[in-house]
């Protein structure tokens, strides 16, 4: 076969592949911002013994990044409501650091509060938004929705007769050397964690970044039953057979990126989130997630 003919065949094959690949890529990006999936995780603990014999159920949402799903979040809110949760965790980055205002995020949280109690943890975008605005008014706006904002704070509640302690913390649960020496940890973090773990209740820590607990000796040092995180968007780009592409401090193809992990004596639950801010790469093959957690004995 002459070289010229081979080149024509090769060009034809390449064109065919492009014809297939371009709409496929568009579709995989589209569903990563506009579709929804519900993933359920069952976690057992001897501390969970509801008086009614039922499971405790809560929903985790995070990384909305002002995404409205082209319907003012109506389908998202109805999907959450259909789970009939005992409470809801909003795990940070509900808005963007460059949002003109927090209206989309606060409207969403107000609607969630009508479904169940909402516990809100700060993400990096809430913190950066306040820095950009040179104001901490956002904290009052979050509280005004009826959500319970927890940053280096916790709240003791009872759910179906089961005592639960829910806390929130953005900082790292270890010092720069990976240890947990009080003098080298961030302001107030050591004392907060020591106080937080001092209970027989089931302990849930909202920590926007999984990095806060997966590095160093944090997962060995702290007596926390469940850490709930988001932040990494499931890797942003999800490759078939390879998984999430990038995970913040963990770098490329991170180990802890999406799902339920048991690390040392700690369960770590990581959501892939509901949206994305402006990134070098868009969400790809990465359907936004509503996470449902069933706690039982």
Automatic annotation (TrEMBL):
GO BP annotation list: lipid A biosynthetic process
Keyword annotations for this protein? Hydrolase, Membrane, Metal-binding, Transmembrane, Transmembrane helix
Q: Where is the Calcineurin-like phosphoesterase domain?
A: 56-234
SUPFAM superfamilies, per the entry: Metallo-dependent phosphatases (SSF56300)
Q: Where are the transmembrane segments?
A: 7-29
Q: Which domain of life is it from?
A: Bacteria
Instruction: Show which residues constitute the signal peptide.
Output: none
Q: What are the leading ranks of the lineage? A: Bacteria, Bacillati, Bacillota, Clostridia, Peptostreptococcales
**GO CC annotation:** membrane
Q: What is this protein called in UniProt?
A: Ser/Thr phosphatase family protein
Short name of one Pfam family for this protein? Metallophos
Tell me a Gene Ontology molecular-function term this record carries. UDP-2,3-diacylglucosamine hydrolase activity
């Amino acid at each position: 076969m002459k070289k010229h003919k081979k080149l024509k065949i090769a060009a034809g094959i390449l064109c065919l592949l492009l014809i297939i690949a371009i709409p496929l890529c568009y579709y995989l990006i589209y569903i990563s911002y506009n579709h929804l999936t519900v993933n359920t995780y069952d976690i057992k603990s001897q501390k969970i013994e509801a008086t009614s014999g039922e499971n405790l159920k809560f929903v985790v949402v995070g990384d909305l990044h002002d995404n409205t799903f082209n319907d003012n979040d109506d389908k998202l809110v109805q999907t959450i409501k259909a789970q009939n949760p005992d409470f809801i965790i909003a795990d940070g980055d509900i808005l963007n650091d460059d949002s003109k205002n927090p209206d989309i995020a606060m409207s969403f949280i107000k609607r969630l509060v009508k479904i169940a109690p909402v516990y809100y943890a700060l993400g990096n975008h809430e913190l950066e938004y306040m820095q950009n605005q040179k104001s901490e008014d956002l904290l009052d706006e979050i509280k005004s929705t009826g959500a319970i904002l927890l940053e280096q704070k916790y709240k003791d509640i009872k759910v179906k007769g089961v005592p639960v302690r829910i806390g929130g913390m953005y900082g790292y649960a270890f010092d720069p050397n990976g240890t947990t020496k009080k003098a080298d940890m961030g302001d107030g973090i050591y004392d907060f964690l020591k106080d937080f773990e001092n209970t027989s209740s089931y302990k849930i820590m909202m920590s926007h970044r999984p990095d806060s607990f997966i590095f160093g000796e944090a997962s060995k040092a702290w007596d926390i039953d469940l850490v709930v995180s988001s932040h990494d968007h499931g890797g942003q780009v999800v490759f078939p057979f390879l998984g999430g592409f990038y995970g913040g401090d963990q770098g490329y193809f991170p180990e802890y990126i999406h799902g339920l992990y048991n690390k040392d004596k700690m369960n770590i639950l990581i959501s892939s989130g509901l949206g994305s801010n402006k990134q070098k790469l868009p969400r790809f093959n990465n359907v936004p997630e509503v996470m449902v957690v069933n706690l039982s004995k």
